[in-house]
Amino acid sequence: MPLRSTDRGWPARAGVLVLAACSLPAALGGCAAAIVAGVATGAAVVHDRRPTGTVLADEMIELQAMHLLHEHPEIAGRSSISIDSYDLVVLLTGQAQTAEVRDRFAGMVAGLPKVEKVVNEVRIGPSLDLSAASHDLYLASRCKLAIANVNLPGFDPLRVQVISASGKVYLRGLVTAKEAQAAVEQVRYVPGVTEVVKLFEYLPTAP
User: What is the mean pLDDT of the chain?
Assistant: First the structure.
């Protein structure tokens, strides 16, 4: 199966995360959604190698990008785009009706504060139906289970993020080269995976 690489080279209290998220406009869905995001972030930081401030910044980038979609129905109504930020690099997946819609939104996201790079993987075509979207979620869950089988000293499978889009699986995380390769080897053999895209950030190699 083909591989493609575009590699680059207690935590903060949940209450702090909630207050920061609630500073966004109410159009995001109010503080109820922000509370959920804040608590989830607080729990995730326990397993994360990113600095706490970076984790919070990534959460805020995703919220701000979703707000952009809300503010621009001419884009939201002609696309089904998923937004995932890791270490200030935003991955866009999903579908858009035209290249103009896809590229316009990617440009808007690139202009958000703290965004260092946008990886635009949005495909041109109709939005996925419920069955296809459910399959992506199922495939991602199977890949996560597979990564849990990695047998390396000190490896934490929760440090690897998995995003699935139409059979293509994107792997993200701050990992060692050995951890990255081991995760890829587990995922590439999961039934339904058509391609593995590595978007890892690598820890420096010990001298």
Answer: 85
